[in-house]
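pinned: reference chain
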Amino acid sequence: MLGNGAAPRSVSRAAALREAAVSEEMGVAARAVEAAAADETADLGPFFGLPSRVQDLLRRLRGIDTLYDWQHACLNLDCVRRRRNLIFSLPTSGGKTLVAEILLLREILRRRRDGLFILPYVSLVQEKVRGLAALGLELDFLVEEYAGSRGRFPPLRRRGRRSLYVATIEKAHSLVEALLEAGRLQELGLLVVDELHMLGDGSRGALIETTLAKVQYVSKSTQIIGMSATLGNIGDLQVFLRAEHFSSDFRPVELKEFVKLGDSVYQVDPTEESGLSFSRQLSFKYSSSMQKADPDHVVALVTEVVPSHSCLVFCPTKKNCENVAQMICSYLKEEFLQHRREEKAELLRQLRAGGQGWVCPVLRRTVPFGLAYHHSGLTSEERRLVEEAYSAGVLCLLACTSTLAAGVNLPARRVILRSPYVASEFLKRTQYKQMVGRAGRAGIDSVGESILILQDRDRDKVKTLLCAPVENCYSQLMHGDGKGLLSLILSLIGLKVSLLRVQRGMVSLHHSATSLLHVTPLPHSSTSLLYLTPPLPHSSSTSLLYLTPPRHSPLCCSCRVLSSVPGSVDVSHSAVLYGDLSRGLDGLLLSSYLHLLYLVTPYELLAQCRPDWMVYLRQVTSLSPAEQKMFAAVGIPESFVARKAAGQTVKKSVPVQPVLRMYLALVLLALLKDPDLVAVSDRFQLSRGFVQTLLSSAAAFCSCVLRFAQELEEFWPFRTLLSELTRRLSYCVKAELIPLMEVAGVLESRARQLYSAGYTSLTHLANADPAHLCRSLTHLYRKQAEQMVASAKMLLSEKAAALQEEVDNLLSPPSDLPPPPPL
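pinned: its C-alpha cells
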C-alpha cells in the first residue's frame, strides 16, 4: 500500500491507468448512447422535437414568447441531439432551467421515459412541483415530489404514463438506490442536476457524486445534464460525467458590480491592477447619531432605489439581518408608510393568522415600512408570506442571509453585501457570485447593481474575491473520514454487485469495478486521500485495485450497516440507530409517542441544541410516570437534569447524545400534543424556525428509519408504528387539514383558510376556479391560485393512477403461473 509519501512514478502510472480506463469507458458509453439515440422515435413537432402545443403552453402558462439565442444554440447542439451528457454554465437568471425543462419534456413525451430533476432545497423542489403541475396536466405526465417525508420507494411502475420526479439531493439518492435495487434504473431516461457546483459541498456533495456514479455505471442509456452558474475545474467535471460543455456569459439584464470603501464607490474592473476603478464619491448628509448607528451608509444606499425598486441586503448573521432591518426603518421617511399601505396591513394580518394571533415584533415594526428580514429563524409560513409579498412588490427590501442566494428566486434591482463575511468566514468566490447574481430582474429592470461594503482591513483580500476564478470542485467521497466512499462500497455490496472482495482489512475491486471508481471524480481530485496502486504482479490476471478504508470508519459489512444505504441513514449513525431500535424491541414504551420520537430525532440537529436546563426540568416533571421511565431506558439518571438545572456538578459521566436527543424529543412531543409552533418555541426557548426545522427533519428522518427497519426482519414491529408517526410529523395539524397540506407549498395557515372557505378536500380544491379562489382567500395572487389548483389536480391524478395500477396488477395474473387446465 502507498502512504502519504507515495512516489510520483507510481502516481503517474495510476493516472495513466485511470486515463486509459476512462477513455475506454467513454467510448463504450458513447456507442451505447448513439445506439439508443438511433432507436428514438421521429420528432413530435417543430419545437425542438416537441409539438407546437408545448410552445403555446409555455407562452400561456409562463409568459415565454421566444427563447434566447443561447438557448436555441444549446438545444440544437449535436451532443444534445445524440443524447450525450452535457454540462452548461451561465450566470444566474440566464434561463438555464427552461433548457432543462424542455429536455425533460422531450425525454418524457418523445422517448416515453421518466425524468429526474435534482434541486438542492425543499423549498425549490416545492416551487418547481407547483410550476410544472400545469404542464403535466396538459401533456399527460405525472409530477412527483420527493422532498422531506414525501416520495414512494420504489416509485410505482406506470404502464401508460411517465413521471417527472422532482427531488432534493438526499431523496434523489434514495430514489436511484430504490430503482437500482428493483432493477428498474433503465426507466430513468434523463437526470438533471441543478447547482452542479455543490459536488464540492461536503456530505451533500458526496451524495450527488455517488448518485451520478452509480447511474453512469449501471445505466448506459440514462442521459445526465448538469447546470450551474459557478463552475471551476470544468475539465475534471467533464471527465467525471463524460460530458461536453456549453457556456455563455449571457445575462438578460446587465450586472454592474461595485465596491464601497469609505466614502468612495469603485466599479469592479478586472483590467485594472487592483481589480477596481473609481466610480463616484458619496456625499450623504448624516447627523452624528445617524453616522454612529449607520457608519457604512446602508440607509443611504438603500433609499437610492426603494420603494420604487427592490433591494436585497445580505448580512453575515441572522441577528444582523434583524438589526439591519430595524435600523433602516428607523431612518425612513413617513411616506414609506403610505406605499401600498393596505397590502402591507394585509400581510401583517396573514402573519398574525399564521402565528395564531402572534406576530414577530421585528416584522411588526418593519413591514409597515415595506421591509422584512429573511433567514432560517422564520417559520416556513412566515418565509412564504414574506417571499410572496416581496415578489409582488408589497415589500421593497429584504435583509437576508447567504442561504437566500441559493434558494427561491427573489431577484432585486440592487443587491448590497453588508460584509464580505458569512458568520466569521470570508466569502468564497462562488458565494459572492451567487449573491450578486440576484441583481437584475428580467422584464422589470434594465440593469442590476451589486455593492459590496468593504473595510480597510479586508482591502487586500478583495481582488481574489472579485476577479479570481471560482473555486474548484473536488471529490467529497473522503469527506468525514471517507463516509461517502464507504457508503458507495456498502451500496454495491447491498445491491449484490459482484465487484468487491474484503481481505485482511482491505477492499479489493475486480477489474470490472475499476471503471466504477473512475466514473467518480475521486481519482481526478488533487485533494484525494485515496491511495491507489497499479495491479500487483501476482494478480495481473485479475487486475485488482486496492483501497484502504478510512482508519476511523472501518469497513463493516454487517446487515445493519447495509440497511442504512437504502434508507439514506448516515453510515456513521447506523450502528447507533441499530442499537436504539434493538433496545426498543426489549422495552418499547408506548404509553405516549415519546419513545418513538426519541428514535426518530435527527442526529444532525444535536450540534445546534443548547438546552435550557430549567426548561428541561419543568418538562420532565410534567411528564406522566410512564413517560418518565424513558430516561432510565436511554441511560439518563433521574437526578441528572435536576442537578444541571440547579447548577450543581454532575459527578457521574452521562453521554451527551441521549440527553440532547431527549430534549428535542420533548419538543416534538409538545408539538404533537399542541401544534402551536409559537407557543412551543417560547416554552423551550428556541427560535420558531429551529422548531419547525426540527419537525420537518424528524418527519424526513422518520421515513428513513422506516426504510431502515423494512430492510431488517427483526424490526418488523416498527413498520406500522413509524408509518403512522411519519404521517403525524409530516402534517402536525388537525386531521381535516391533512389532505389540503399534501398540495406542494400549502402550509397550515393556508390550509385553514382553504378549509374555512369551503375547500375541504383535494377534490374541492382541484375543481376550484382560480379567480373565485383569489376572491375567497386573502393575500392570494392569481398565479399562485392557478398553481395551487394545478397541484391539487396533479395529486388527484397521481392517486388515481396508483389505484389503477393496483387494479391492473390484481387483474393481471403473474407470468409464472401455469396455464389453466383445458375444459
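why pinned: The longest strand covers residues 254-261. Confidence is low (pLDDT under 50) at residues 1-41, 498-515, 524-557.
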